[in-house]
Design goal:
The chain is built from nine helices and six strands, in the order βββαββααβαααααα. The chain is α+β, with helices and mostly antiparallel strands. Among the domains are: 42 residues, no CATH class; 137 residues, no CATH class. The strands form two sheets. The chain has a four-stranded mixed beta sheet, covered by helices on one side. A two-stranded antiparallel sheet has the order 5-6. A hairpin with a 4-residue loop joins strand 1 and strand 2. Helix 7 runs antiparallel to helix 8. The radius of gyration is 36 Å and the shape is elongated.
Length: 288
């Protein structure tokens, strides 16, 4: 069992710069991958996304790489042709508008295209180091998802055991419901109809009404759902949606038992059972 929630973070340094890698994973109906890479390794986006899709099958997975503290000094050059052109144009403006000379070097150096910095490039060694660190972050996040999935599995088992115990209690409380209902209905009819209540058709109708209060079928189905859920928890692959569907079926059976049993004792037990089913469904939404 694997959770869709995971996180990993790492900071490393190369001979060119320092960098950090963050990967976070949240629950989602499908697999969604997002890569935020700096310009110098933007061309690695496809490779990184392929790694994410190969590792994760479901969830919203977001990976971010930030570069900081460049150790290399970038070469800076001054475009003299550009600065000369700006200078000449400024002088023309001053002369035409009869303005006093106010041009200074700082203004010229701040104009577009005057100062040119060498483009930042990373070495093959640095690129390899970053990709290795990304793979490590992905592995760490995957491990966290599996660890959280195991904790979720244990919690689900506790809730499932509680529902199973509740079913045992319901079984005892509703063991004689049809018989008691038949006797109660027969007595009520006899009071109203007198000796006519012995008519076979009338007794058959009473039996049908009493049978409608029988919850044995619901109890058997609920027991089967619990057993199937327990087995499915140990399966591999994507089981979150299937577990959630089974939890819905359990809730439906519990609801029917509550309405048919018409017992305050059963109602108290059912409330606890429903609470555990709600907890299970909430956890299933975060399972792959």
């Amino acid at each position: 069992m694997e959770s869709m929630t995971g996180y990993s973070h790492a900071e490393e340094a190369t001979e060119q710069f320092s960098y950090s890698i963050s990967l976070k994973s949240l629950n989602s109906k499908y697999l969604e991958t997002f890569c935020h890479l700096p310009k110098v390794i933007k061309d690695c986006t496809e490779e990184v996304e392929a790694l994410l899709k190969e590792t994760f099958v479901r969830g919203k997975v977001e990976l971010t790489v930030d570069i900081f503290d460049w150790l290399e000094t970038k070469k800076v050059t001054v475009n003299f042709d550009a600065i000369q052109g700006y200078h000449d144009e400024f002088r023309k403006v001053e002369k035409k508008l009869k303005l006093p000379p106010s041009l200074n070097l700082s203004v010229l150096l701040g104009m577009d295209g005057v100062i040119q910095k060498e483009r930042s490039l990373i070495s093959a060694k640095t690129r390899k180091a970053i990709m290795k660190a990304i793979a490590g972050a992905v592995t760490a996040a995957k491990a966290m998802r599996k660890a959280e999935g195991e904790m979720t599995r244990r919690d689900l088992k506790k809730s499932l055991d509680a529902i199973s115990s509740g079913l045992d209690a319901v079984w005892e409380l509703t063991r004689e419901v049809p018989e008691k209902a038949f006797a109660r209905l027969k007595e009520a009819v006899e009071k109203l109809a007198g000796s006519g209540a012995s008519d076979e058709r009338l007794l058959a109708e009473i039996a049908i009404l009493a049978d409608k209060l029988d919850v044995n079928e619901e109890k058997v189905r609920l027991k089967n759902h619990i057993a199937k859920f327990s087995g499915m928890m140990n399966e591999k692959g994507q089981i979150g949606k299937r577990l959630d569907f089974l939890a819905q079926e359990m809730f439906r059976e519990i609801n029917t038992i509550s309405s048919k049993a018409n017992s305050s004792q059963v109602a108290h037990v059912v409330v606890e059972m429903k609470n555990h089913v709600d907890k299970i469904r909430e956890q299933c939404r975060n399972i792959v």
